[in-house]
Amino acid sequence: MHRPDANENAAENRSVENLNVLGMEEMPTPDAVKDKLPIDARATATVLAGRAALRDILDRRDHRLFVVVGPCSIHDPKAALEYAGRLQALAQEVADTLVLVMRVYFEKPRTSAGWKGFINDPQMDDSFRIDEGMMRARELLLEFARMGLPTGSEALDPLSPQYLADLISWYAIGARTTESQTHREMASGLSTPVGFKNGTDGSLEVALNAMKAAANPHSFLGINQSGRTSIVRTRGNRYGHLVLRGGGGRPNYDTVSVRLAENALTKAKLPNNIVTDCSHANSLKDHTLQPLVMADAVHQLKEGNGSIVGLMLESNLAAGSQPIPEDHTRLRYGVSVTDACIDWDTTAEVIRKARAELRAVLPRRAT
Predict the structure, then answer these.
(1) CB neighbours (10 Å) of residue 3?
(2) Which residue(s) pair with 168 in the sheet?
(3) What are 220-229's pLDDT values in tens digits?
(4) SS3 state of residue 83
(5) How far is the CA of 18 from the CAs of 13, 24, 28, 150, 177, in angstroms?
(6) How many degrees, rounded to 5, is the angle at CA 211 between CA 209 and CA 216?
(7) What is the count of structural domains for the chain?
(8) Using one digit for the tens of pLDDT, what is the confidence trace for 55-75?
(9) What CATH number has the domain bearing residue 144?
(10) What is the rounded (10 degree) CA torsion for 73, 74, 75, 80?
(11) Residues 138/33, Cβ–Cβ less than 8 Å
């Protein structure tokens, strides 16, 4: 009987494994990345204060509203830092009524194809230097935290939180991934409050099921800080909440939709915590409609709504969006390369207006 030798076994393995994989490159471990870019005391204080404020809002110990606001995606660190500086000054101005959290999205889910974000392709040239993208993303998050500005991001790749989560105060699970068991398990172990978006068809069921799942303990495969494959065991995350972003060609930010969401949360025995996403299907992908969606949410709060705890806005230095040109020198500064955003002046205007209208209203919700 012929016994295959080591060379034959290796050849057989190559015939059945990784047939569509062109190559594998080692990624620096989370420990290695953090050794080069360690969190400091100032950044730690920002992250902890941001998380505490959000938890207190969700627990109704803090009457304020939180607003996750910023670019649809980060592609230019210089523009992102300029935006963050402006947002930090505005955050201090409205801090008695609103908690501003900068939207810092480094990963972009795609329905079919397209640029998948700063971590995946930081040079936007299909070189896919994920190692570089992760380092530069962490460097930016450190800068924001040192400014005193809490950040929110989408948890898309299940390994990314091991590299970045110590610098983030709020996470979202997107409409395309809320139904994913992997993302529900990951959310159960995140150290931040987590917003679950309703499905792309507008249905709430997947988000409610995700909130229930993430609140429970889980065990699953992941990596540890040394980059070794590990069994991750979580305690569950009780700070899951619902994000209404519209879907199926219809918005769901209006009074009736919010009341239906409240009823669904109550029936599911989940906290009545709702965030209104002013973009995506709620603005019918028209960035100029975002201020109207926000105004509607503010009106609901003035009329006595008790469930809306947060808002989301897609905002950049300049309005609109642009395709990624082959010649990157032709990129317009401060303009989104993914979904269209409102500009800074509009952002500051709607936030200041919301603060003025809600300053006397929100404290009454806590009594």
Answers:
(1) 5
(2) none
(3) 999 999 999 9
(4) helix
(5) 9, 10, 22, 41, 25
(6) 100
(7) 1
(8) 999 999 999 999 999 999 999
(9) 3.20.20.70
(10) 140
(11) yes
Residue 111 pLDDT: 57
Token pair recorded at residue 181: 């068991």
Long-range CB contact pairs, 176-180, < 8 A, 24+: 176/109, 176/111, 176/200, 177/109, 178/206, 178/207, 178/210, 179/206, 179/209, 179/210
More confident residue, 92 or 4: 92
Which amino acid belongs to residue 112? S
Residue keyed to tokens 């040079």: 123
Is 339 inside any structural domain?
Answer: no
d(CA 356, CA 89): 17
Q: In terms of residue numbers, what domain contains 235?
A: 25-57+66-315+353-365
Would you put residue 153 in left (φ > 0), alpha (ψ -120 to 50) or beta? beta
Name residue, tokens 């594998």: 24
Is pLDDT above 90 for 129? yes
Give the model's pLDDT for residue 253: 98
Burial of 112 (0-12, 13-18, 19+ CB in 10 A): exposed
**Among 108-117, 231-240, 339-348, which stretch is predicted with the lowest mean pLDDT?**
108-117
Distance of CA 252 to the CA centre of its chain: 20
| Whole-number Cα distances in Å, 59 to 45, 193, 269 | 21, 11, 15
Q: Both tokens of residue 283?
A: 């603005």
Give the residues across from 114 on adjacent strands.
Answer: none
Of the candidate ranges 19-23, 64-68, 81-85, 340-344, the one whose mean pLDDT is the lowest = 19-23
Which is nearest to 265 in space by CA: 248, 246, 245, 242? 242
